[in-house]
Structures are given as structure tokens and as C-alpha cells.
Amino acid sequence: MSALLQTEALDKHYGGLHVTAGVSLALEEGEIHCLIGPNGAGKSTLFKLILGAVLPSGGRILYAGEDITNLKPFQRIRRGMSVKFQVPGIFQALTVRQNLAIALQHHLARAHLDREIDRLLEFLGLHAAGLQRASELSHGQKQWLEIGMAVALKPRLLLLDEPTAGMSPDETHATGELVRSLNRAGVTVLAVEHDMEFVRQVAQRVSVLHLGRIFAQGSMQEIVADERVAEIYFGETRYD
Amino acid sequence: MWRLLEGPQTLGRGRWFWTGFVVCLGIAAGYPVFVDGYTVGNTVYFFDWVFMALGLCLIWGYGGALSFGQTAFFGLSGYGYGVLTTDFGAAHGFTLLALLLSVGLAAAFAALLGYFLFFGRISGVFLGIVTLSVTLVCERFMSQTAGPEWHVGAARLNGYNGMNAMPPLTLPWSGGDIVLFPDIGLYYLVLALLVLVYLALRMLVNSRFGNVLVAIRENPERAEMLGYDVRLYQLAAFVIGSALAGLSGALYTSWGQYITPSSMGLNAAALPIVWVAVGGRHDLTATLVGTLVVLAGFQALTIYGSQYALVVMGALLVATVLLAPRGLVAGPVEALLRRRRPGSAR
After folding, report:
1. Is residue A191 in some structural domain?
2. Would the CB atoms of B223 and A102 count as touching at under 8 Å?
3. How do residues B274-314 score in pLDDT, each as one tens digit?
4. Within a domain: residue A148?
5. At residue B233, does pLDDT exceed 90?
6. What ipTM describes this predicted complex?
7. Rounded Cα gap, residues A68 and A5, in angstroms
8. Could you tell me the end-to-end alpha-carbon distance of chain A, in angstroms, rounded to an integer?
9. Mean per-residue pLDDT for B316-323?
């Protein structure tokens, strides 16, 4: 395997506040990589840096061997990245079909749009809601719709920012299965997530971010067994 | 291509809508036969403004960028037509070329201004403030051009009094040019232009471009994260919409054979907002119908005093925002359609 995405000594500071400090993270092609860490660890900022929503103060980002540090977000998306936000970033006033059409029309001729939308609706379990306004969907359905829009771009790298936020345990499990099926189809996934059940379900590798630095890295079992990780999540535990 | 005439971004589809469209067109075509020349000319005056309204509908209603300064392009194009036709005359249908050049001038200015606005990431209320400032600066500038030093070739700009006596539109003809004074000839030309622009805009907003424009209005961040260069789409809509404001300006100038700085002033700048908001900014047909109705109402009210008419326009805008934010034409039609087709957004 080779690194699809690589951050090198990525630094972001606002005045004296270092939100990420020298983060070097390598994401292998074909893996599901989860980024976890306590609140304020710098996960969201790192996510925005990778997307290009904020520019780094130092360091660089490589994607498929290309330096994309100074590219605009839409330029990164056109290179095969795709994103799903924590708060569903959908077009509320448009129908579910229209939402998917806008994502699909990038690479699909008008004649094939309807068939591909039907296929996606089936895949997302939203076939009955195609003509509904997106604002009328339940929270979980909105999350899936946004995943559908992200998938519609046929990404090579899928970035998920807390994809199960606000979901019930059943919905979370279903989302996990959906992510795994995408991964089996060849999509590399980087997910920022708080829900440990979800991380357990999907992650092949986990990175722990703490105070803006990569604190630990490994499989889920290794991370769970790491006492230092438990300390940063729950504080120092003494039994004496 | 014809499939684009009806789609998710426009109200009205199917046999009933297009039958109604043809009936309206038939009535409009037969209208000059039943009314006097003055009324025909007055109707052309109404039509002239609709292009600017449709342009604003595209920029604001579909693209979500409120431009408060469309009158800057209206005025620039109007003065452009005045200067060109005063300097080069009207022979051999030059007025038509002058019309095109004036619209091009408005589009070029919009491209320059829009580049700084959209690539400078100016949005929301700030976009309105900057565009309003631009039109007010244009008005102030043209108002101080009364001196003899302010001329372009033989064309004097004439300050606050504005330019006048430029030639009306002419059509080159074998037996001599046809001069289009505000009467039946000009009526049919402007009506044909209006139908053409309306249908072209319907196709534009139902195309891929239109879909993306609406997506940007709804959620610009998400649109960018789907790989679209939001700035480019907003700029394109701004240029097209402003070119239409320019078309209004040049047609208006050729219609009345005058153009004054007040056409770029605060009152003038506010009126297109009222027309588009009252009709329903999210839809071209609602904007077209709303603009014609409000213009006719405004003119009727000016009989009792232009200040009263402006107060009523302000009240109408407030009432629309509070009671029917989707417009007095589009709002009820959308509600009716939703009742007939529950679950459908359009």
C-alpha cells in the first residue's frame, strides 16, 4: 500500500494558539482511518486543513503525490476527494433527487442522471423520499443523503466529519455498514468520530490527536490497550 | 434542448402552462390593434424594464446574491447608447449595433466589478452595500458633468439634466431605414426580445448551470465541496443579469430619447428590488408577471404624486417580506401546486 494522503508537519496557529502543531499523518490507499481525540484536540481544524477550508501556517499536504497545500477546496474535490460534514450540508429547499442530481451532474450526462439517482436512492434507502424536500427528511435521512452526495462524486478519498452525529444506535450501525461497503468498493476513508462503537465497527487504523499533535496511532485494539490514551480521555487514574 | 424550457427551477410545465403561454402571447400580439398609439408606447416602456427585473431575478433569486446596483449597468448602457448614436448617427441600422455595444459595455463593467466582488468573497449584505454604492457614485459622477468639458466626441453629457435627442432604434430597410418610435414597430421588436430572453433564461436556469446556481444560493459551502468554483458561477450570473440591465437601459434610452443620472439614483435602484421581491424572486415567470403588474400600479399611483407612489412601493415590499416572502405571485402558486402534488417541491 502507498500513502494516498500525507500531511507533513502541518501547523495551524491563530496568534499564539497552536491548534495543530506539526501533524504528520499518512493515509494508506484503501484503508478506513479514524481520527479521534478529546474536545479541543484539533480534529476539526486538521479536517478543514485537509479540505482546504483553512490554509495552514506551516507544513504541507500531499495527495496522490501532488502538493495540494495551496489548492482551493473545489480543486481538491475535483482531484477525487469528497466530504460529509458533521451538520448535514445539503440543499434544504431542493428535493432529494435534485440534491443528488447536482452532485452527479459533474461527471454524468443528463440522459444517465435519472437511472443513477434511482440507484443511489436505493443504496441509501431513500427511494420513497425522492420527491420530498430535503428539509422534510429526518436527521438520519439527511445524514445519509449527504453521504449519498459525497459518494455520487465517485471519490477516491472520502472524508467524514462525525458522520453519525445525532443518529440512533441502529442508524449508526447502518452507517458503519454503508462506509464499509464503500471501502470494499475501493474508497479510502478518513473519519473524524466521537462514537467509539462506530470507530470499533469500521476503523482499520486509528490516530489519536491530543493538543494539536498525533498522540498515538495503531489498530483499535492497540489504542484501547494504550493507557496513555485512556488518561487523556478520562484523566489520570490512580488505584493506590 | 426544449426539455430545458421546463424543469425543477421554473414554475409552470405541461400542456396547460404552455397553452396559457401561447394565449398570453396571442393577446400580446393582438393588443396594439385594440389600443391607441400612446398606450402601445407606454406598454413598451413597461416591457423595457422587465429585462432588468429578469436579470436581477437570475442574480438574486436564483444565485442568492442581492445586487442593489443594477441601475448602474442600466445607466451606463443608456449613456453608452446616447453617446454612440449621437456621435455616429443612426444610418444603416447603426442604432442596433449601438444597442449591442452598450449592452456589451454594461457586461464588461459587470465582469470587472463582479471579479472584485466575487473573487474577493464579498457576499450577503456587503454585496448589496457595495453595488448600491457603485450606482450612487455613478449617479453623483454623471450629475456633475454639466460643463462643456464633459463630452465624448460631439455628445455632451449635460450633468443633472442628462442627455437627450439621441436617435431612436432604426431597422435598415431597402426603401430607407424604418425608425422605431414608441409605437407598434418598437412594440413588436421589444415583445419579441422579451419572449426570447424569457425562454432563454428558462433554459439557462433549468440547465446544469442553473442547478449549480440554485445550489450556491442554498448552501455555497456545500456547492464548493461538490467541486464547483462558486465564484465563477456567481460572476457569470452577475454578468448575464447586468447585461440584461444594460439592455433595459439602452432600450429605455432609445424609447424616450433621453437618459438622466437619476436613473441610477437611490429611488431607481430600489424599484427593481421591489418588482422582483413582490412577484417572487425565485421564479422567472413570477418576476415577469409581478414586474408588469407593479409597474402598471406604480404608474397609476404617480397620478396622485410620485412620492405617494414610492411610499406605497415601500409598503408593498415590507408586506411581501412579512406576509409572502416567496412573492405575491410565486407564493400562492407554489402553495397551490403543493396541495395538488403533496410531497413535491415544485
Report:
1. yes
2. yes
3. 999 999 999 999 999 999 999 999 999 998 887 889 999 99
4. yes
5. yes
6. 0.89
7. 10
8. 45
9. 91
Which pLDDT score, from 0 to 100, does residue A234 have? 67
Cα gap B66→B314, rounded to integer Å: 17
- From the list A83, A92, A102, which residue is nearest B211 (CB)? A102
Give the domain extent around A75: 31-47+71-234
pLDDT digits (tens, 9 = 90+) for B27-64: 999 999 999 999 999 999 999 999 999 999 999 999 99
> Does A91 sit within 8 Å of B214, measured CB to CB?
yes
Whole-angstrom Cα Rg for chain A = 18
Q: Is B1 on the interface with A (CB under 8 A)?
A: no
> Which chain B residues are closer than 8 Å to A95 by Cβ?
8, 344-346
Number of domains comprising chain A: 1
Report the alpha-carbon distance of residue B339 to residue B122 in Å, rounded: 39
Q: Which residue matches cell numbers 454594461? A: B106
Residues B266/B267/B272/B273 CA torsion (nearest 10 deg): 70
Beta strand pairing status for B151-152 and B170-171?
unpaired
Q: Is the pLDDT of residue A240 over 50?
A: no
Provide the CATH number for the domain around residue A148.
3.40.50.300
Q: Beta strands of chain B (E only): which ranges?
A: 151-152, 155-156, 163-164, 170-171, 178-179, 258-259
Residue A52 lies inside a defined structural domain of this protein: no
**A19 found inside a domain:** no
CB-count exposure of residue B16 (10 Å: 0-12, 13-18, 19+): exposed
Looking up cell 449519498, which residue turns up?
A148
- Among left, alpha and beta (phi > 0; psi -120 to 50; other), residue A5 is beta
Q: What region, left, alpha or beta, does residue A15 occupy, with left being phi > 0 and alpha being psi -120 to 50 degrees?
A: left
pLDDT higher than 90, residue A88: no
Whether the CA torsion B324, B326, B327, B330 is positive or negative: it is negative
Mean pLDDT within B159-180 = 92
Mean pLDDT of A100-123: 90
Instruction: With both helix axes pointing from N to C terminus, report the angle between B37-56 and B184-205 in degrees, rounded to the nearest 10.
Output: 20
Contact A95 B215 (CB under 8 A): no
Grid cell listed for B262: 437619476
Chain A positions touching chain B (beta carbons under 8 Å): 51, 53, 72-74, 77-78, 82-83, 85, 89-95, 98, 101-103, 105-106, 110, 131-133, 149, 153
Asked whether residue B338 carries a pLDDT value surpassing 80, the answer given is: no
Residue A165: pLDDT over 90: no
What is residue B293's predicted lDDT score, i.e. its pLDDT?
A: 96
The DSSP code for B56 is H
Distances (CA, A) of B208 to A73, A105, A114, A147, B111: 20, 7, 14, 21, 21
Using CB atoms, pick whichever of B226, B344, B345 lies closest to residue A103.
B226
Strands (E) located in chain A? 3-14, 17-28, 32-36, 58-63, 66-67, 81-84, 157-161, 188-192, 205-210, 213-218
Write out chain A residues lying below 8 Å of B345, CB-based: 93-95, 98, 131-133
Whether residue A238 has pLDDT greater than 60: no
Q: How confident is the model at residue B341 (pLDDT cuts 50, 70, 90)?
A: low
| pLDDT score of B42 | 95
pLDDT at B345: 40
